[in-house]
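Researcher: I'm preparing a figure for a lab meeting and need a structural model of a single chain. I don't have an experimental structure, so a prediction will have to do for now. The sequence is pasted below. Please return the structure as tokens so I can convert it later.
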Amino acid sequence: MEVTDKHISYRIYLVAVVVFLMAIGITVKLTNIQWVEGEYYRKLAKERSVKNFVIPANKGNIYSSDGSLLATSIPNYKVRFDAMAPKKEDFNKNLQPLCDSLSKLLGKPSQFYKTEFLRARSTRNRYYLVARNLSYTDYMKIKSFPLFNKGAYRGGIITEQKTVREHPIGLVAERTIGYERIRPNGTPDGKGIEWAFRDYLNGKDGKRLMQKMAKGQWKPIRDENEVEPQDGYDIISTIDVYIQDIAHHALLKQLEYYEAEHGCVVVMETKTGEVKAISNLGRDKDGNYTETVNYAVAESHEPGSTFKLIDLIALFEDKVADTSDIYDTKGGEITYYNRKVRDSKKGGYGKVSLGRGFELSSNTVLVQAVYNNYKSNPQKFVDHIKRMKLHEPLGLQIKGEGKPKIPQPGDKDWYGTTLPWMAYGYGVSMTPLQTLTLYNAVANDGEMVKPLFVKEIKEWNKTIKKFDKEVINPKIASQETLDKIKAVLEKVVKKGTGSKLYSKDFSMAGKTGTAQMGYSDKANLYYASSFVGYFPADQPKYSCIVVVHKPSKSKGYYGADVSGPVFKRIAQKVFTDVPSTNEVKSLEKNIPIQDKNYDTYYANSSKDLKTIPNVKGMSGMDAIALLENLKIKVKIIGIGKVKKQSIQPGEPLLKNSTIILELS
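Model: Understood. Here is the structure written out token by token.
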């Protein structure tokens, strides 16, 4: 018995010792937590229960010069369903009316949603996708549907919201408006105005301190934010939506007809350099034309005959040649260092003046004029190019400008053929916008101005920053030289390579260009067709360049045939629809629009047409011109092609009546 009691006593002592040691350990641990590691655990607890939430700043909008919205941020919603959240009776009672409501809104059969929801319930799916890319209006409708109107915990609706950038006018100038995005590796990236002006557009995010509550919910600790969000500023671009729409559709039509690979068009205001329209369209793998590359800004290539303008400027400024000087085209072929320069016309043009040679875009005439006068001192010719700043990038407001290439005597790639090849636009490289800037300077009495894409940054009605005209070169040539050049540029359209574009109703001046590309490999040789100039010829208001790459050779590839009609169409529509009484003398006449698709309409419009024509499907610009020629007042809603017309086709034609066109 005593032995048994003794064993029990030992066990009690052992337990007591263990408990005592545990008590000491707990005391030590508590002391350590409280005093040694206390700061760490207090910080950890605070991080898990209190944290700063980011309050996103509202991104600024991008507007056209006439106030149209080009880019804006809108909320985009995704709705999911937690199939296990609703009680059984709620689920069964509201399932059919919920499916009927979703069917009516989203278009799929009611039975489809019923089957999906039942499957989600049976598989205990707590994250079933109901709909994505919802507008705020549709999201609010879905929230009010049966079952979903009970909220997240009783109705099972799960909402995910993000802000997306939208371009209300669609593809128009999309590449120049640009974008900002995050690459897969987490680094930011972007293009166009969105990227170049992101510091102004994005604003600054705010912060709010919030505390975690039950059920994973958070509430603000105080009424005021830790940091108030600052909304982004608005950007006012130079784009004119009206001219942009004309340019975009004119280019698109020509690219489609000639099955070209890509092309671009830029319309610039002569005095200010403001880019009023810019379109860059390339053919994708499906054969559709989209804006993916800003060819006008980024693509530096051999310009071909449009470069010949520089020849005349140098020759006239140095007074070594004049428009009346005679040159023999020598059967349309001359040789330099065993390499031939040929005219596009087989057999050449005989003996012609320098001015006439320019009008006909004779390679042999311009090359002889430059080579004969600068072969002993080619640096003198190159210096003219440098004085006009054409060897440097323009320094545009948006990123990605292509670099010009102007060979320099003494460089390792300067050969005996370099100077004559430069004379007709080969061995040099310029972007379409750089070429346009030169021609715009001629139109602007010699003042070369930098192209502008953004003219103002605003916060509501307050101007934050304004971008005024920036002069690159106050006078690229003497007035005498400029007057001669303007005369020959006008004659190019009247009786030269651009004579197909001539119209007695309004004046244009410019130069055609047809450059061979990839000529080092004959199997891959193609053409870049261009036309660059300005209008009206006597008092220029706009300059414009059109470049089309790789048109179908079977349909045509000369600049006058491929790019010239785009230039004319733009000039024609701007003349017709945006007249200036001080600058255009003949605008009281109704100028017919040259459009193969609508020739019969315009022919009929000059006759005794008795009924309203069907303009549905036509571009807004075409429909306006047609109806106004019929003495009908036109009001438009939207941009694009005609979707609806208020006066139906076939109804009696009443002069001075008003028709409303709804555009897509």
